[in-house]
Amino acid sequence: MSCRPHGRILRRSVVVFGFGLLFSVVPLPVLHFETESVGAVEDVPTVTAMTAAQIDAARAATGEPVGADRVVAADDSAGEFSAIGFTFDSEPTAPVLVRVRDADGNLGRWQALETDDGEGPDAGSAEAGRSGTAPLWVGSGTGYEVSLGAGDAVGAKVVTVRDELRRVTADSTPVAGAATPPPFGIRTRDVWGARAPLSTSYASTVKLAVVHHSDSGNSYGPGDVPGILRSIQAFHMDGRGWSDIAYNFVVDKFGTVWEGRGGGIDRPVIGAHAMGFNTGSVGVMVIGDYTQATPTAAALESVSTVIGWKMAQHLADPAGTVAFTSGGSTKYPAGQLLY
User: Fold this and answer.
1) Of 63, 199, 228, 245, which one has the greatest count of Cβ atoms within 10 A?
2) Domain 183-338 is of which CATH architecture?
3) d(CA 227, CA 287)
């Protein structure tokens, strides 16, 4: 009587057991779906001259010094987007105004977008690119109108940010120290769904803090914050050509601190928030428009807390005076010493 069939069964059992043992030791990649925000860049549609009545209405709505030499462009079939902004060959010489159409077809009020190339990467860096506005988070828009100075319209591009559901692969291998809570309950990049940075650069230390606001609306809720952060990152990366979101930390009006630019919360990561002063500084952005409004007490407390902690990490006095040499910007020439 032959035992060969039994031997083959035994060998197959050993092979199956071997694969099972291998899979129990080697972690397999985990496939899952997550929302990723991306910026679609297009030429601004064909422009037409604004009438005197249109200019008066835009001036009354925004309080901006809107001159007579204005043009307007519109796109009512842009598709759904969560944020919008514009880029230019050079810094605009006239106010950039936009109004957005909602899902019901209603056209909102004119809003002025902040334009300041001084808030960006250092001149000559790999991130230096097109001029642009701050992105305006709208939640859900389906169309827009933009009003520009006639000269600024040449070469202007519109960036609409859209959320896409994409399949991504996450490494299931536990990372040493990942379970350690970040200081002050900082919400890390994975919480808001950040894209991976294209590159990361480091300074030798941090001795200066720069505080910004997003120049967007103040009516957002806690659940809107991750989407707002993704939209800012997408505009910075896809619209402006930067390697990541510009700011090292973000604070919302509820006082929550969020990790911004990747590379390490406690490391001197070089941002793209203060031209000429990015190396050796930490950029903290508060979500909202505080040109007229006052930041909440919770936001102010969190800003001071995270800056104090960051300065302590690098043995700098947050209440002290520091001499800082400009690396060159639209406001301060290279080599100018500031205190």
Assistant:
1) 245
2) 3-Layer(aba) Sandwich (3.40)
3) 12
Q: Rounded to a whole number, what is the largest CA-CA distance in the chain? A: 105
**How many CB atoms sit inside 10 A of residue 23's CB?**
10
Give the other-Cβ count within 10 Å of 140's Cβ. Answer: 11
Q: Where are the domains of the chain?
A: 35-163, 183-338
The CA-based angle 78-130-77, given to 5 degrees, is 5
| Contacts for 246 with CB less than 8 Å, ≥ 6 apart | 119, 120, 121, 232, 236, 260, 261, 271, 272, 273, 283, 285
Q: Which residues have C-beta within 8 Å of that of residue 232, sequence separation ≥ 6?
A: 83, 135, 137, 214, 245, 246
pLDDT in tens, 123-178: 888 998 889 999 999 999 999 999 999 999 999 999 999 998 877 544 444 433 33
Given strand 111-113, what is the order of strands in its sheet?
48-49, 70-75, 143-149, 96-101, 111-113
Euclidean distance between the first and the last CA atom of the chain, given in angstroms as a whole number: 96
